[in-house]
Amino acid sequence: MGTTVERLENARVSLEIEVDAERVEKHTERAAQRISRQVRIPGFRPGKAPRNMVERHVGSGAILQEALEELIPEVYNEAIAELDIDAIDQPEFDLKSTEPLVVMATVPVRPVVDLGDYRALRVPKPEAPVTEQQVEDTKLALRRQYAVLEPVERAVAWDDHVRADVTVTVEDQEPYTEEDAEFPVREGTVVSLPGFVDRLVGLEAGEHTIEFTLPDDLPSETLRGKKATYQIKISEVKQEVLPELDDEFVASLDEDGVTTVAELDARLRTDLQVQADRAVREQYHNEIIDLLIAQAKLDYPDVLVNREVDRIIDRESNHASHSREGFENWLRSVGRSEEEVREGFRPEADLVVRRALALGELIAKEEIEVGDPQIDEEIDSLISQMTGGNPANQQAIRGLIDTAEGRNSIHSQLLTRFAVERLEEITAQADGEAGDEPRRTSRRRRAGGDEPAAEATDEAPEATAEG
Questions:
Q1: What percent of the chain has pLDDT over 90?
Q2: Structural domain includes residue 324
Q3: Is residue 8 domain-shared with residue 93, that is, in the same domain?
Q4: Kind of pairing, strands 297-299 and 112-114?
């Protein structure tokens, strides 16, 4: 058997396998024997008909087809084992010729990832200062939670609440009606469709018709630039009466350690800073991961993207894709064909795969490891968050989380988190700072001792910015 190998784009390998005639003859003879046991041939007991009679009865082509069904997988498996080809999915076969027998096999193989000089990447870490306006806006939102709504006999003004029957029609679409709806009228907010709230200001109780053209930049293509018509019957206008922001109001909130306006300011500023830092850090992580991908050379097969598309569909359909009937019902509910759904999710799936491959290679390069102590620590943290520190339900929750499947998932999440943290250490450092040594030891300290290196798996780690 002779085999020629060619590396193709998208992490595929093409094999041209020429099978010697003696081996083909051997399998053809065995195929004829199998057929003779399966097909009734007049004058012969099952399995006793000679080959020439079998050929006369079913044709030589049928015998060859039967032989190839056994022979092709056999020679393919021998070829990839002999050539040490790391196939990750089933091959596609093509019969190039029968005399001599030449089989073509195209198979996806493990991706090739080259991160380049990733330790030279530098991205300044952004800051997230909290402004006085943010603090004031948060205090206003807090006061609004305890506001009193008083009916008024006047036209609608900003920050009022309106109770009304509303019917909206967008050109040729079916009208939508909501009776006795109540909603606030606030600048910069959207109720129903953009522009509706703005046109309520100045209207008094009674029936009104509002018409306007929708913006051209709406996310929904079916609404862009269309004319919206509202039939609205305002039954009541209420003004918002806010509580005074004083120490008495703050004390009534019953927040630990917060009894004065000054203490409330300090608490809100701290909380806002934590939120801002978290948001900026997540955005920063996405930026540096994308930068890592941009300079990397990635060669990967389509099958990885297709698998990720399957996972996204399973998630978005709430597992309806587990059965064909359920999947078709879901497709009807979203009004799209299977091809449209798969193509729509493909860019997202491709990005997930690229991020996973890049982070997976970073984990290998930086020798990032996750041990059982770290997984235990994460499980303890999750249980504490879910139970509020109450020990009553902790054992039951632990039984749900601390499973083989749960630990594998947490292991993957921690690997991703540590990889992104390491990438952050590299990109955020000033030019000239040392970044040449893997940060393996720091992960071991976090685990509380030495841990064996994580074994490589077929699946890349989760490609999220936050673990």
A1: 65
A2: no
A3: yes
A4: antiparallel
